[in-house]
Structures are given as C-alpha cells and as structure tokens.
Amino acid sequence: MLHGKNAIVTGSTSGIGLGIARALAAQGAGILLNGFGEAAAIEALRLDLTREFSVPVDYHPADMQQPEQIAAMVAHAESRFGSLDILVNNAGIQHVAPIETFRGERWEAVIAINLSSAFYAIQAALTGMRARNWGRIINIASAHGLVASAHKSAYVAAKHGIVGLSKVVALETAETGITCNAICPGWVLTPLVQKQIDAIAARENIPEAQARRRLLAEKQPSGEFVTPEQLGQVAVFLCSEAASQMRGAALPVDGGWTAQ
User: Fold this and answer.
1) Which residues sit opposite 184 in a β-bridge?
2) Does residue 181 sit in helix, strand or coil?
3) What are phi and psi of 226, to 5 degrees?
4) I need a labelling partner for 125 at 20 to 30 A (CA). Which of 151, 182, 199, 227 fits?
C-alpha cells in the first residue's frame, strides 16, 4: 500500500514509535528512525527492519529539543529517500509532580519534546509535501490530550497542544492531498509507562503485577494495555485512501478511558 512512500517516525527506537515504524515498513514504506539508544543496538535494529521488510531504513539522531536538528532530520530524509511523505511525531517524555514542585526545567523539556518538536518537524516537512500534493502527518497525542490527570501538568498541556496543532495543520492543508490527524492512546506498556508502574510498586511496596493492575483500573475500563502493534495499524489506516477525508481528528485508542 505504501510502496514508494517514505516516513519519519520520531521516538522510534522502542515502544509506540517502533510499533508504528514496523507497521509502515510492512506496507512498503521507507523508514527514517529517530530516538535514543546505544549506537550498536540502533544499527542492529536498522538492519533487522531492512532485512525483514525489504525497505530502505535509515537513522537520524536529531535531538527533539533542538529545532535546527529537527530541520536537518527532515532534510536528511528528503535527500536519502527522495521524498518525505509520512511524518509521525511520536517522541515524548514524562515528568510527574504537583504543580508547586514541578521544576521549571522539566516543564520546558516536556513541552519542547512532546509539543514543540512536532511543530518544527511539520514546518520543515510541509514544503515538500505541498510540492507533491500528498502527505500524511500523524501526531501521537494521548488520552491526556483529551482529558487530564493530576500531577501531569506539562504532559497534559503538551498533549492538548498536539490535538490543537493537528486541527490547525488540517485546516491549513484542507484543500490539498495532505492530511493531519492525532492518535490518542491510553495506557501502552512502553518504557515510559513501565517507569510509572515501577514507581507505584516502590511507593506502595506492592508487586509489579499488582501495580500494573492498579494503573489500568484507575483509568482504562478494558483492563488491558493498548499495544504498539495496534497503534501501528491505526497509523497505516490514516495513511490509506480510506482516510483521505479524515482531517484534524483526534482518535482515542484507549480501552474506554475517554468514554467515561
């Protein structure tokens, strides 16, 4: 379905981003990975994806807090592949604290990586997409882009911002072949979420399995984690012709979290 198309997926060396990168590669898209990790492990991942899906796979180490590096990453993708057709803004970090004790530098980092990086990547990618009159911009928001939780002021603000940014981009590209939408996952068992589970287990002196159940029971009625593979398939759908008139949508994939 996506043969001849090429994608950047930020934060794609693990978790949700890797699940989306794998799903796009399985449909024939070339992939530019981005994210943290040991150089040898990232190279092994790149080679594994190349072999498994027979698509070009590259890596760019852009720091999502640095606008000039984000622009360089987009330019690299266009040079390496000949086009950038799909942009998945997935990179994210989390910090949890009450507002009174939420350190300013943590606020700035969460906003920069979770929100501002998407703006800069979209800004850099749109010129080429407009020239080809085709593009898919997929912003990974969160259930926290639609509702809030205590102690997550920066994350909730950033993810609400991502939903709003997606709507603005959708309106500005409404008469083109470019679409922009947001996916709003609930709890996904990623390294980011595992840290929260570990914190609950340590704070309450309970086993990890019990901490997992407690995390899910608080928010996610299904009692099950969303998987990166499921989110990858949602991203593939948003790249399809069937989704060509989905513009500015915020799609919950959250086990019923935001239905409450």
Assistant:
1) 252
2) strand
3) -70, 150
4) 227
Using DSSP, state whether 145 is helix, strand or coil: helix
- The ranges assigned to domains in the chain are 6-186+227-253, 187-225
Global pTM value: 0.95
3-state secondary structure of 84: coil
Q: What is the CATH number of domain 6-186+227-253?
A: 3.40.50.720
| Side chain identity, residue 106 | R
pLDDT in tens, 184-222: 999 998 877 888 899 999 999 999 999 999 989 989 999
Cβ(146)–Cβ(216) below 8 Å: no
pLDDT tens-digit readout, 30-58: 999 999 999 999 999 999 999 999 999 99
192 vs 178: CA distance, rounded Å: 31
Torsion of CA 83, 246, 64, 78, to 10 degrees: 0
* 59, 107, 155, 257: the active-site residue: 155
Burial 89-121 (b: 16+ CB within 10 A, else e): bbbbbbbbeeeeebeeebbebbbbbbbbbbbbb
